[in-house]
Design brief:
Length: 505
């Protein structure tokens, strides 16, 4: 029963820790790698127009739903104008208003986006469009063309491809020529295609956007065609009929309505500029968490003051060292002094570096042990003896620091980082074992402690592991589960296998 309880507890700890980790990683976008940066595109729309003295009301279509992209932030730069975001028939619209304006005017709308493949349009299922009202003789030409294309296709995708092929035919028939007689721009062409698709009761709409590049001063808007096949939206190149979408195609607005409308202004024009930047993934995750209304980031360590973060970046690695110590002692079978001494020594190694730390540790323990044997002749009680050893350790640390400074070895100054109380306890324990079980066991346990400290340092000093533990501290629940399971292990230790070699044979 107790064994089952341990397994249930471990499974519960793993489930809770892993669930929080996956939510922060997959949903909120917390990065797994340290110093991870994501490309962020800043798109700026500049609306320029001339105004007479009087009221100005400007409306600009802005992104509503962009598959493959998520909005980081958006703002407007328009001195003296009132600004608001509203939903119209074609999606979101930015609106600027001012009571009085005169002369040439320029207003800006800016949006920053980053790639996120999880953003799609699966929730925007349109109804079947009504048959459009087309005047003769265009209606007859449209019916003949749609009927002919339907006979040559098998589904929505093939129908759209065949229709666009017929509309782009260098030698079009009379019906196509009639339908395209008033087409002068690519936008007009896409409008004709959507009308013909609506005649076939196929939901379709024009999309306008641009392929994002590193830097563009005058980014041209590309008209594209979206067709719904009953399950999802499909993208088609109106010039070729190919079912595709340009790489990093950012949809600005949908529909055949004008991009911008300015009441009280003339000579209206819109210019787009695109710039690519690199932004810290943590900053993106913070913004995304606030947009979703979750308080996960408020309870993240990144919300703490910088100095406090630096402290916890070290403290959170102690459980990792403790796990290494449990494995080394309970599974491998390495004998060591104390319970937490190797972990604390490993923390000191993070500051002194491994080689110099091992030298300092060996030097302190050797000198301290020699002086401890000298104190043995005084026949002191336990507490005074430990106090005397502690004082000796402090004096030794002071001596090593002064000597290394005189020799120009600034690294020796880091000896002060060693936990003096742990060193004093290690010297005391080692001397007791030396007296009770001999020098061999004492030296073996001392080397085992040093080996465990080195192994703990090897894991605690990994930058990527420190980042993961700091970013996802809930994973310490998984570490706790592993410690609990290791605590129930009663089998052979790896170092004991040679002792029972004959039994295994």
């Amino acid at each position: 029963m107790k064994q089952r309880y341990v397994y249930v507890l471990a499974a519960l700890l793993v489930a809770v820790g892993a669930s929080i980790f996956l939510y922060k990683w997959q949903v909120l976008g917390f990065p797994l790698a340290e110093d991870l940066e994501k490309p962020v595109w800043t798109i700026e729309a500049a609306v320029r127009f001339d105004s007479g003295p009087g009221t100005i009301k400007a409306q600009l279509h802005v992104p509503t739903l962009t598959p493959g992209f998520r909005t980081l932030n958006e703002n407007s730069v328009s001195r003296g104008y009132g600004f608001s975001l509203n939903y119209g028939s074609g999606g979101r619209e930015a609106q600027w208003t001012i009571r009085r304006a005169d002369g040439e005017q320029t207003i800006y709308y800016r949006i920053s986006v980053y790639e996120d493949e999880a953003v799609d349009e699966s929730d925007t299922v349109p109804p079947f469009p009504p048959r459009p009202v087309i005047e003769e003789p265009l209606a007859t030409a449209a019916d003949v063309l749609v009927s002919d294309v339907r006979d040559r296709s098998a589904d929505t995708s093939s129908f759209t491809t065949e229709l666009l092929r017929r509309l782009n035919d260098p030698s079009p028939d009379a019906n196509v020529e009639l339908l395209l007689s008033d087409v002068t721009t690519e936008t007009d062409f896409v409008a004709v295609a959507t009308t013909l698709l609506a005649s076939a009761r196929i939901p379709a709409r024009a999309v306008h956007g641009f392929a994002l590049a590193a830097r563009q001063r005058n980014a041209p808007l590309l008209p594209w065609l979206e067709v719904h096949n009953g399950d999802r939206w499909l993208y088609f190149n109106p010039a070729t009929g190919e079912q595709t979408r340009p790489d990093r195609f950012f949809v600005w607005w949908r529909g055949n309505e004008p991009l911008v409308n300015v009441e009280g202004g003339s000579r209206v024009r819109v210019e787009f500029a695109v710039q690519r930047n690199q932004l810290d993934a943590i900053a993106i995750a913070e913004t995304q968490a606030r947009q979703q209304g979750t308080s996960a980031f408020d309870f993240s360590l990144y919300s703490l003051p910088i100095q406090t973060q630096a402290v916890y970046s070290v403290l959170l690695m102690i459980p990792i060292g403790a796990l290494v110590m449990v494995v080394m002692r309970n599974i491998v079978g390495i004998d060591a002094f104390g319970t937490f001494m190797p972990v604390l020594i490993a923390l000191a190694f993070r500051e002194t570096r491994l080689l110099w730390g091992v030298i300092l540790f060996t030097l302190l323990v050797t000198l301290g042990l020699s002086i401890r044997f000298l104190l043995e002749r005084l026949r002191l009680l336990l507490v005074p003896r430990l106090s005397a050893v502690l004082i000796v350790v402090v004096l030794l640390m002071l001596f090593i620091s002064l000597t290394s400074h005189r020799l120009g070895l600034e690294t020796g100054l880091s000896v002060a980082l060693f936990p003096m109380v742990i060193i004093a306890m290690t010297i005391e324990r080692m001397s007791v074992v030396w007296e009770e079980r001999g020098a061999g066991d004492a030296v073996r346990a001392g080397l085992g402690s040093l080996l465990v400290a080195v192994a703990a340092y090897a894991f605690m000093g990994l930058p990527w592991l420190e980042h993961i533990v700091f970013t996802f501290p809930e994973l310490l629940l998984v570490v706790l589960a592993l410690v609990v399971l290791a605590g129930r292990y009663t089998g052979y230790r790896l170092t004991e296998l040679h002792r029972f070699k004959a039994l295994r044979a």
